[in-house]
Amino acid sequence: MSLLTALSIVCGWMLHVSLSALNTQYYCVPRKTVPYQNELKLFREEGISNYSTMLMRDDLGVLLLGAREAVYALDINNLSVKKAAVYWRVTEEKQRECTYKGKHAEPCRFKSPRTSLHGGGLVAGEVPVHLLSTAEVPLSKAPNPKNLLRVECRNYIRTLHRVNDTAMYVCGTNAFSPTCDYLTFANGQLTLEGKQEEGKGKCPFDPFQRYSSLMVGNDLYSATSINFLGSEPVVLRSSDLALRTEFKSSWLSEPNFVYMDFVAESFDSPDGDDDKVYLFFSENAMEYDFYSKVAVSRVARVCKGDMGGQRTLQRKWTSFLKARLDCSLPEPSLPPIVQDVFLLKHKDWRKSVFYAVFTPQSSLSQVSAVCAYSVSAIRDTFNEGKFKTPVAVETSHVKWVMYTGEVPVPRPGACINNVARKMGMNRSLDLPDKTLQFIRDRPLMDEAVHPLTGGPLLVKKGALLTRIVVDSVLALDGEKYAVMFIGTGTVSVAKKLQFYREKEKVIMYLEVNMQKLILSVSSGLCGVFCCLLIENGYIQKAVNYAGEMFIIEEIQLYENPVPISTLRLSSSKGQLYAGSEFGAVQMPVSNCSRFDTCVDCILARDPYCAWDFEAEQCSSVSSLSPSSNTATQSLKEGDVSQCPQPDPVAAVDFTLVPENNIQLPCQLHSNLAQVLWRLSDQTLHSNNKYYIYSGGLLILSASKSDVGLYTCDSVEQINGRTYNRTVAVYRLQLYSGAGGEDRTTPGNEVRNSSDSVHGVNTASPGLVPKPGNEEPLSPQNQSDTGRVTRLEVAVALLSLLCLSLTGVIFWIWSRERWQCFKLGQRSGESEGKRQSAEYMHIQNRTSEIKLLGPESGRPCSANNNHSAVDFKGNGEHHFTPMANISSLDGLGYINDESEI
Ligand SMILES: *[C@@H]1O[C@H](CO)[C@@H](O)[C@H](O)[C@H]1NC(C)=O
Ligand SMILES: *[C@@H]1O[C@H](CO)[C@@H](O)[C@H](O)[C@H]1NC(C)=O
Ligand SMILES: *[C@@H]1O[C@H](CO)[C@@H](O)[C@H](O)[C@H]1NC(C)=O
Ligand SMILES: *[C@@H]1O[C@H](CO)[C@@H](O)[C@H](O)[C@H]1NC(C)=O
Ligand SMILES: *[C@@H]1O[C@H](CO)[C@@H](O)[C@H](O)[C@H]1NC(C)=O
Ligand SMILES: *[C@@H]1O[C@H](CO)[C@@H](O)[C@H](O)[C@H]1NC(C)=O
Ligand SMILES: *[C@@H]1O[C@H](CO)[C@@H](O)[C@H](O)[C@H]1NC(C)=O
Ligand SMILES: *[C@@H]1O[C@H](CO)[C@@H](O)[C@H](O)[C@H]1NC(C)=O
Known about the structure:
Elements: H1 2-24, E1 32-34, E2 41-43, E3 53-57, E4 62-67, E5 70-75, E6 82-87, H2 92-100, E7 122-123, E8 129-130, H3 145-148, E9 157-162, E10 167-172, E11 179-186, E12 189-192, E13 197-198, E14 212-216, E15 219-225, E16 233-238, E17 256-263, E18 276-284, E19 295-303, E20 321-324, E21 337-344, E22 353-359, E23 367-374, H4 375-384, E24 388-393, E25 397-402, H5 418-422, H6 433-441, E26 458-461, E27 465-474, E28 480-488, E29 509-512, E30 517-520, E31 531-532, E32 538-545, E33 548-556, E34 566-570, E35 575-579, E36 584-588, H7 598-604, E37 609-612, E38 617-620, E39 631-632, E40 651-656, E41 662-665, E42 674-679, E43 682-683, E44 690-693, E45 696-699, E46 708-718, E47 721-734, H8 746-751, H9 754-760, E48 768-769, H10 790-817, E49 820-825, E50 837-842, E51 850-852
Parallel strand pairs: 1-33, 40-47, 49-51
Antiparallel strand pairs: 2-36, 3-4, 4-5, 5-6, 7-48, 8-31, 9-10, 10-11, 11-12, 11-13, 14-15, 15-16, 17-18, 18-19, 19-20, 21-22, 22-23, 23-26, 24-25, 27-28, 28-32, 29-30, 32-33, 34-35, 35-36, 37-38, 37-39, 41-45, 42-43, 42-46, 44-45, 46-47, 49-50
Helix pairs in contact: 1-9, 1-10
One 2-acetamido-2-deoxy-beta-D-glucopyranose (NAG) binds next to loops.
């Protein structure tokens, strides 16, 4: 019975997953899904969590890893090897102080271990759901469940920077009292010097707050809050001449700092410009007229040589400028929020590119995107763009509009350059008050920075993208390709769960924040509550081939998925390092041996891998000898014509027992392929006789007439070409009496059916709606081999029911899946106005996003006429995106002062 229950749960889970697949897979689908493999090198230490800060020291051969109350020096070649460790725990006194101020040193303890929900429908299938109590409290008295989960009065290591050959600078939150110290690695030993420097402004108080920092020379640049409450954000340079931002909401308004990097723009600069530090963050928008707070993404920069002003902006940045970062999503939405950035450096800094990951600010959307921005575009916006200025409308209301008046010289916010030097100003201290006052009051540029390609490089629905690194890979064709590795975080699930009870009392309320769905029942401090975190820790490996977005594969990094909180790349070693709450993992940038045939190797379109005809294997391009011309790649085309014809697949004999259901397994090599089943050259379709799903074919209640040769073909379309190959062949024969040698028992086979959905949806498990009124079917008698027990039959039949349900869903889903979008971007005609995204469907094509940049003007329909196999219907779909809706148009955007 418990097996049946389990099965109904699995069934419900599958149903849910399929349902969620319905609305999560419109966008890019990874070609391959690589489940967790044991070979990945993992580092974790019992009792230590939150492995979230990394510093690569190639020179020392170690990766420094900062966790909660510990720093490790790990072998950079084998992360599992701990070379040294140092523990930095908070003192009892600090912890007492911290808890006294209302913060937590331990997570809240749950009062009762388990309970059920009224008005139910919530089943803990594959999902880690912990339902606790159902205490009844008025909603108004319920504490914020997020706060109860927090453990703050500990020392979370947050800042790790190189100082010199042996020393690092390290800061920790130290129980809401940030502290910094020097750390040395010498003679295989990690040592803290115990200097206990003040860490305010260098490291956040709150371990849950985003921050960013960067060491340039001996100067530490940091962006974080400088006070206990987290209400005073600063961008700080700690150096002999410390500088910070002005405490004004026009400079920073409740920001979330994400990333900082340095660009040596003084190099080879014709106008004698200075080096810059760029900062990425999100904050409350000031430029939109909206009834509630709207966040926007920003890029800001300061000059390395800034020394502050003399009278105005004393000890403050004179070069702090910020602009909105534009990354339009295909669905109308609030502006997406930048989560992480990576600077792909080029010898010529003008060609360096920032890659940024964006997630939606509304929990109602699950669309993440990657946009890329060239350093020169950002620089142009700051150096030549117009400013925004505040204008009072009505009495107390301020609008930010384009500044049309005269701009003082030297240009406000500019670094000291030849123009300033010619005017006799060698330092920012020499700048005139007029310039400084201007920039103090108007740090925001009018124009947004637009992505390099006009629109996103990648749009993906499902698990939110959290972190990004980008590798530049030299392929066989001599071109360099930017391969993106993107970490995923949590998926927010079903939005419509409601567990309210009658009258004023509430049993449970629901909070959906951006990353977590929290069901809450609360009573008192450390109250009882429950939480539901749906996590998903994959690395998505993606490339853009001339506008075509392609996800080569997605790789699961942890056995139990956890969001990836840090990602580092060692291009020279070909290794990725990922940190999470649970531990740190090392992963090679490619594993070509995963592609075992020539066709698979070519269709993978992985720039790291090529098919080596001589060795007859898929090899890493870097391992090929430069002189060898026996290897092939076809990245842009995915052309397999050079591959030798594969050997024909041998037919497997299968025994048919009349009245039984028969499952013929067939696992495709690609998530982008479709399956085509044939019975002696006649195409099979899902109907009341056959059920085709991603794991194989199910023949329901087989009879003598089903005897024959069954072929499973995989049909994959890449760039308009169709590749089909036979994956499996079965010869079905009639069962010929006792002692028959049938290798597979249908009842057992069916149990594997839960795989089918897993193969389909790689996103995540979901919340399970209880399949409440589905009574288990009564088992039928079976007169066959005798290996099938009654229970197994019951299981099989229940699975069947389940399968047919999922089948219907899968069918709908697979019809949806082959559609994809082209993102079209018109170049902005009106200044400052966000460009509208136009998109269309590409029917019957694989699901990459096609980018339609300004230069590539191909219409979407150009690739539209490959009519694929007909089993998936005519390509009709229900999703009708609204073209021409620009989210920001609705926010009362004013372009020009004159419009008021
Ligand atoms: C630290 O890890 C624990 C789980 O191991 C998690 O609940 C907590 O949110 C993490 N804290 C931070 C600041 O990331
Ligand atoms: C990495 O280190 C671990 C722990 O010492 C060891 O078990 C493993 O074999 C090493 N792997 C490699 C590839 O050297
Ligand atoms: C490195 O920096 C540390 C901390 O400032 C200092 O004590 C040490 O002498 C320096 N070492 C070298 C080799 O410069
Ligand atoms: C600026 O520097 C130039 C050359 O380095 C020098 O001749 C000039 O006097 C300086 N001006 C000021 C105001 O310091
Ligand atoms: C690469 O993939 C193969 C096949 O899946 C596996 O056996 C091997 O261990 C992998 N290598 C690494 C370094 O992960
Ligand atoms: C390959 O696919 C095409 C189009 O779907 C079809 O016409 C053809 O018969 C297939 N070939 C094989 C060998 O299955
Ligand atoms: C069914 O699952 C078992 C164990 O999970 C596995 O060994 C077997 O190969 C699977 N069969 C098919 C047809 O996938
Ligand atoms: C069920 O099958 C067994 C043999 O497997 C047979 O003896 C029995 O009579 C059958 N019962 C019914 C109700 O058909």
